[in-house]
Specification:
- By secondary structure, the chain is of the alpha/beta class.
- The chain is about 40% helix and about 15% strand.
- It has a single domain (about 15-235, about 265-295), classed as NADP-dependent oxidoreductase domain (TIM Barrel, Alpha-Beta Barrel), CATH 3.20.20.100.
- The strands form 2 sheets. It has an 8-stranded parallel β-barrel with strand order 1-2-3-6-7-8-9-10, surrounded by 4 helices. A two-stranded antiparallel sheet has the order 4-5.
- Helix 2 links the parallel strand 2 and strand 3 (about 80-85).
- Helix 1 crosses helix 2 (about 60-70) and helix 3 (about 100-115) crosses helix 4 (about 135-145).
């Protein structure tokens, strides 16, 4: 198989499209106008970003629309990732399904919103135990033969889903949560990528802002930011993580490292992690992300940080 994301060129940071879709509701992170979003997308391209990850649930389609508009005149120069599996009812209640008919509809809708004849990389967003993934993959394999998608990947997957999906067509990448606090994928999904020499991309790279210090105990969120209402956010033991960030900062201050350098360096230190997704919302945040690539931690420094976390 191929390390598809390793060969993209540009920097190993991908643009997490949820960050530009807040006022569209769905899974967004605060208000940002279409003009601001498009300017930011082009700015990141100029700074070396090549992969733009989106999904229909991000702003109920707004993220896809904005990415399509921003890159209409240079479509062939960017690598766009979108997904099927998380749709919504007319009431905008989330519906998670890998039903083949819904998969076909979601693909058609994404192509329309992106205003593109093709999607570079199309992923199944989440496993669905009600649907045999092979049925879903049959839809995507046909679309690939037609040139409507160029390659296929799996998000938040597992060994059984990967094996079944691979019976139908080649899976080219895996995507899952990974950061210094959420390491489960190191023993579940990343080994699949290593065994099959696949590209892995991480979401949750900055732990929704906790690792950078921008999200702390005093931070509040607008209604258009899913962190103001999402059950998964409310269920996280954030107080424990805030305390651990204080420990981390004491350690990395001795190494002249920034929290962003640590977050990026931790993920990129793992074999087959070819892309880390980040959701910067303005030029300054993206400058901080990109500039941090020039000062990543050593393996020894990472081990000291991890030890300090695990001991506290």
């Amino acid at each position: 198989m191929s390390r598809i994301l390793k060969s993209l060129g540009g920097i190993p940071i991908g643009f997490g499209g949820a960050s530009i879709s807040g006022e569209g509701a769905g899974y967004g992170f605060g208000d940002i106008s279409e003009d601001e979003a498009c300017r930011l997308l082009r700015y990141t391209f100029d700074r070396g970003v090549r992969l733009y990850d989106t999904a229909p649930i991000y702003g109920f389609g707004e993220s896809e629309v904005r990415i399509g508009k921003a890159f209409k005149d240079i479509r062939e120069k960017v690598f766009i990732v979108s997904k099927s599996g998380v749709s919504w009812h007319e009431s905008k209640r989330v519906n998670m399904t890998n039903d083949p008919k819904e998969t076909q509809k979601m693909l058609e809708d994404s192509l329309r919103r992106l205003n593109s004849d093709y999607i570079d990389h199309y992923m199944i967003h989440w496993p669905d135990n009600r649907v045999d993934i092979r049925k879903t993959m049959e839809v995507l394999a046909k679309a690939k033969l037609q040139g409507r998608i160029k390659s296929i990947g799996l998000c938040n997957t597992n060994q059984d889903e990967f094996i079944k999906a691979s019976e139908v067509d080649e899976v080219m990448s895996l995507q899952s949560e990974l950061n210094i606090f959420s390491r489960d994928s190191l023993s579940t999904v990343l080994p699949i990528a290593k065994e099959n020499d696949l590209s892995f991309m991480s979401w949750g790279t900055l732990d929704k802002g906790i690792l950078t210090g921008r999200v702390n105990a005093k931070r509040t969120f607008d209604k258009s930011d899913c962190r103001s209402w999402a059950p998964w956010w409310k269920s996280i033991d954030k107080e424990d993580r805030y305390k651990k960030v204080e420990v981390i900062n004491k350690v990395i201050s001795k190494f002249d490292l920034s929290p962003i350098s640590l977050a990026l360096g931790f993920n990129l230190s793992h074999e087959n992690v070819d892309m880390v997704l980040c959701g910067g919302r303005n030029e300054q945040q993206w400058d901080g992300l990109i500039d941090s690539l020039s000062n990543l931690p050593t393996d020894e420094q990472l081990q000291k940080v991890i030890k300090s976390i695990d001991e506290n």
